[in-house]
Design goal:
By secondary structure, this protein is α/β, with parallel strands linked by helices. The protein folds into two domains: about 10-105 and about 110-250, Aspartate Aminotransferase, domain 2, CATH 3.40.640.10; about 255-380, Aspartate Aminotransferase, domain 1. The chain contains eleven helices and eleven strands. It has helices at about 10-30, 35-50, 60-70, 85-95, 115-125, 145-155, 210-220, 240-275, 305-315, 345-350, 365-380, and strands at about 55, 80, 100, 130-135, 160, 170-175, 175-180, 185-190, 205-210, 300, 355. The strands form three sheets. The chain has a seven-stranded mixed β-sheet with strand order 1-9-8-5-4-2-3, with helices on both faces. Strands 6-7 form a two-stranded antiparallel ribbon. It has a two-stranded antiparallel ribbon with strand order 10-11. The longest helix has about 35 residues, at about 240-275. The radius of gyration is 21 Å and the shape is globular. The protein starts with 7 loop residues before the first helix and ends with a helix. The structure holds pyridoxal-5'-phosphate (PLP).
Length: about 375
């Protein structure tokens, strides 16, 4: 049996007619960049997430950068994030010119550990002009936002959430149910095709709680200009295009169903892996975490990760390692002074994590096959 990590063809087959009609409407309209189709999608996203403002941009990476530029974060400022995430999180901080700082993670959740963040924020608040906290909801699981929000408030730090992988994840709070990307002042979403809500190319969104900040992001995404050929700031070209917005509008209607299916697939994995006794043989399973998790990835931890990955590949099961190198050890950050051992939990998880196939259409038989292959690997040791 061949099982891909993600099967976008199965998804497209189910919505082909809707997508084709939406794309045709954009060609009929001939308005390709920003415009009514983009505005409609922004409004749909505002309603879906409960954010005060939703601004379509060219990618999730740009969404992070534009949030920092809107805050006028620069060389005298520090941004604290996790070393265990996709590169773009840290890249946006360095591109904005700010000092890049890390806290360590909790290996059970793969997200920032508040105890570790507390110490980093305290030092940063003493040394930097302003401090931003950039938590990542990795693999689709909310970071511990109540603890992190308290810490940020204590140290006067604004929060920019990297919600690229977590669209639709939510938690009950004192202020009602809140979605990933709406806990902080800003939230960044990615619609990269493999994301839970994926475009037909690059696309992203800034969610924002304040009118003035939203205005700045709108300005910055169009070269600092909202009046033709008058530039109030130096911005970038990062506009959402109408074809992407049209495709995303169609897919947004299915997102809750797809996220529910992902949670069910995760629960099925968990049940079968436990039934096979693998949790007692060194396979660490991700916590299910209810609606706080939308399972963009289903990631286990195992000591002999690379050997297991090979055994799965031989059996036709595609897996992936997100991420093999912690960001503090990336060559491009070598001059920032980080060393091996600085963030031991993140380093360990880089050695042990393995993403198994997960997508809404993944069948019970496919899950059985993956689990049986993992069980056979452990029996053979
Ligand atoms: C955690 C995280 N942050 C940021 C990004 C950047 O998003 P994009 O690829 O849309 O630029 C991604 C996705 O690729 C991501 O996974």
């Amino acid at each position: 049996m061949r099982i891909p990590l993600l099967d976008l063809k199965a998804q497209h087959a189910a919505i082909r007619a809707e997508v084709e009609a939406a794309v045709k409407a954009v060609f009929d309209d001939q308005q390709f960049v920003l415009g009514a189709t983009v505005e409609r999608f922004e409004e749909e996203m505002r309603a879906y997430t409960g954010a005060a403002h939703a601004i379509g941009v060219a990618s999730g990476s740009d969404a992070l950068l534009l949030a920092l530029l809107a805050l006028e974060i620069g060389p005298q400022d520090a941004v604290v994030t996790t070393p265990f995430t996709f590169f773009a999180t840290a890249g946006s901080i360095v591109r904005a010119g700010a000092r890049l700082l890390f806290g360590d993670i909790d290996p059970a959740t793969f997200n920032l550990a508040p105890e570790s963040v507390a110490a980093v924020l305290r030092d940063a608040a003493r040394e930097a002009r302003r401090v931003v906290l950039m938590p990542v909801h990795l693999y689709g699981r909310l970071a511990p936002m109540s603890a992190l929000s308290l810490l940020a408030a204590e140290h006067g730090a604004a929060i920019v959430e990297d919600a690229a992988q977590a669209i639709g994840a939510r938690a009950a709070t004192e202020r009602g149910s809140r979605m990933a990307g709406t806990f902080g002042l800003f939230g960044a979403l990615s619609f990269f095709p493999s994301k839970n809500l994926g475009a037909a190319g690059d696309a992203g969104m800034v969610l924002c709680e304040e009118e003035e900040m939203a205005h700045r992001v709108r300005l910055l995404r169009t070269h600092g200009s909202l009046r033709r050929y008058v530039h109030d700031r130096v911005g970038v070209n990062s506009r959402l295009d109408a074809l992407q917005a049209a495709v995303l509008s169609v897919k947004l209607k299915h997102l809750e169903t797809w996220n529910r299916a992902r949670r069910e697939r995760a629960a099925a994995y968990e049940r079968r892996l436990r039934d096979a006794g693998l949790d007692r043989q060194g396979v660490v399973l991700p916590e299910l975490a209810g609606e706080e998790h939308v399972f963009h990835q289903f990631v286990i931890r195992v000591e002999r990760r690379d050997q297991l990955r090979e055994a799965l590949a031989e059996a036709g099961v595609e897996t992936q390692v997100y991420y093999p190198v912690p960001l503090h050890r990336q060559p491009c950050f070598a001059d920032l002074g980080f060393r091996d051992g600085d963030f031991p939990q993140a380093e360990r998880v880089c050695r042990e994590c393995l993403a198994l196939p997960i997508f809404p259409e993944l069948s019970d038989d496919q899950i059985d096959y993956v689990v049986e292959t993992i069980a056979a690997f452990h029996r053979a040791r």
